[in-house]
Amino acid sequence: MTSIQGKQETNPLPKPRKLNSYSYIVEKQGNMRVPVKIFASEALMGKMVQDRCLQQGINVAALPGIQGYSFMMPDAHQGYGFSIGGVAAMDAACGCISPGGIGYDINCGVRLLATSLDKEQVYPRIKGLLDKLFIAVPPGMKGKSHLRLDAREMDEVLSEGAQWLLKKGYGTEDDLKNCEEEGRLPYADPAKVSVQAKERGKKHVGTLGSGNHFVEVQYVGKIFDRNVALAFGIEKEGQVVILIHTGSRGLGHQTCSDYLRRMEDSFPDIIASLPEKDLVYAPAASGIAQDYFKAMCAAANFAWANRHMIGHEVRKAFKEFFGPETDVRTVYDVAHNIAKLEKHVVDGVEKEVWVHRKGATRAFGPGRPEIPKHYRSVGQPIFIPGSMGTSSYVLVGTEKAYRESFGSTAHGAGRLLSRHAANQQYRAEDLKKELEEQKIFVKAASFRGVSEEAPKAYKDVDEVVRVSDEAGIGRLVAQLMPMGVIKG
Amino acid sequence: MEGDRRFEFFPHTADAKFRAYGKSLGEAFANAALALFEIMTDTSAVKPAMKKKLRAKAERPETLLYDFLESLVILIDTDNFLLHDVERIEIKKKGGMLSLHAVAVGDDAAEYSVGTAIKAITYNDMLVEEKDGKVMVQVVPDL
Description:
- The structure holds 2 protein chains of 2 kinds.
- Chain A is about 35% helix and about 25% strand.
- Chain A is of the alpha+beta class.
- Chain A is globular.
- Chain A starts with 16 loop residues before the first strand and ends with a strand.
- Chain B is an alpha+beta fold.
- Chain B has one domain (about 5-140): 3-Layer(bab) Sandwich (Archease, Possible Chaperone, Chain: A, domain 1).
- In chain B, the strands form 3 sheets. In chain B, strands 1-2-8-7 form a 4-stranded antiparallel β-sheet, with helices on one face.
- In chain B, strand 4 and strand 5 form a beta hairpin.
- Chain B is globular, with a radius of gyration of 14 Å.
- The chains are: A alpha+beta, B alpha+beta.
- At the A-B interface, helix 8, helix 10, helix 14 and helix 16 of A face strand 1, helix 2 and strand 6 of B.
């Protein structure tokens, strides 16, 4: 087992060197095993230096078995231990796995549904539609699932993911096909998930949660790449789509916490060597690493089941509201807090790595077998949600991302203001009115849920996707405009 | 204690960050629990209708704090629990181990306005400082 030499962070923070208009590098120094590569424009770098995210990227570069670079995506900002918007590929044979590199919300992700409706059909009835969606997809702390899982069913969900729900009559075959991993990671082992985690999750399948999670009704604003958009079922400007953003709820949070604590208790030497405790990891060969990976996969399956169920409820609500002939199909579903066991070529040698994507989206290009057959000629769909009231984007994965960033790109806008600061600066009622003037309607479980997610609390999502496109790690396909949003 | 304040909030990009104060470890921990729920709701408005017994055991005070606060986070999901206050708290040291016993009082969330729920406790920037009979703890929960 290798461990980090010394506990000190490199001080002062080395200045990132600009490589070109879309990327920076921090060369290897001190205990770093690899350099840090940052996908950012000058404008985005200007924001990144304002918090501790660069230092966090440097800390990750010192972890055992890290390959190539410690990557930071254009939306990177400060997290716990790992930055949010970070990608780290660890050798699966002699590296490590770190729960902090995945995050508390295991398999937080986004699912996009495309409808046969035009915005002109939806706008006049948007408020009634939001009322209906608010009941169909219970948001906030008090939102409880229409499903109650007993212990046996819970284990089945953890093993089978979204596939279990289809078996029970929820959703369609297409929903599964158009989902990363078809909604199920095979390595999952429910026995590795604690009783407490299962207890926290049993009323959560089909619920949104709070924080930045949402169901947003949108329309296609601008199409940048018509061929790819068509392949994804995004046919024309004005078409109504629905973006769903949530994760594994209490079950995932508890699983992350359980294993952080277990690693802390099992590896005091590793803890002592780390600049931040949340960087704790398990060496790949240890039993805990294998246990955590199996538990994480189970929690990821739970998240896919959750988004599958929400997708089903949204479809049902649309059909009841706009008539049974309304078509609502899943475009795709991507995880952005996860570690995936993937094969990548490093220094000319193919190896198996755990790609930790913490606030980063897989961005595989054309031809990859992991992509559904009908998208394989164009590449994998990627969804980058903006903040409340701003655009979201559809991108497509690239061959270049596979070579340059372990097949990864950004995942969102990235926070700029703390929730507390946003709460103090913005009043929910004012924001709601301001948004309504722009024809964006908000229905939230709480006032705080609105003010904390104030659009100005986030970085400029337009710039994030522009840099991803310029860097070639995720190309622009379409812009999605908000109409109405359900929030926790 | 810093004046009469039981706790105060600080800006943190990712989420929320607070410090809680007390004349003992137990009092500071109890105030941290209160700050945690203050993120979600107005704890003074929550009625003390339910009692929950909490226990934690750890070698180090940071770990004890993590486990104590986590036991409350679990109650949010499993029992729909909102904290009014910590009624009793006792922390004993025996054979190098710290053991905590507490009674939390609160109510079912159904009756109250609730904002962002706490997802988890983190070790990020966590501090437990004891000096001259004053204790300060700092916590960054994940929201």
